[in-house]
Design a protein that fits this description.
Number of strands: 0
Structural class: mainly alpha
Strand content: under 5%
Order of helices and strands: HHHHH
Helix content: 55-70%
Mean pLDDT: 79
Largest sheet: none
Oligomer: single chain
Shape: flat
Radius of gyration: 30 Å
Distance between the termini: 58 Å
Amino acid sequence: MKKKQSKKKTQFKKKKNYPEKTAFANLEKESNTLNTPKKSSTGIPKYVADRMARRIFFTAGIPTILGMSVFVVSYVIVTRNIAEIPPSSTIAISALFFLLGLAGLSFGILSASWDKEPGSFFGIENIPMNIQRAKAAFKPATQNFEDKI
């Protein structure tokens, strides 16, 4: 059940009285802002994002899975007394696969073609152009920051 409020609290509260013109004017302003169409974003097109995702899966996903499986394979080899594997070599090999996956992530993003038709298999020719696009995307933000200083 709700507790009753004391009369002291309700006595000192003032009601905000808005004239009808300003109350309805504010309502009209809100409705106008809701109906304005949004500008189209200049983000990455869907076909390019799908192409990037496929490349990332192969160039980053597979090495990352291999990096995790090194621990499992090493555990099985050591527990079945097949071979003596030092823990440092297990960590080094898995770290190598994880670094390969990190490099594959960058390669998958930068090698994707932005054309409607897919580019070459490796996409190495697209890397310099995509680096320039990335620099251009960050350039206006740095210019605004430098102007304020």
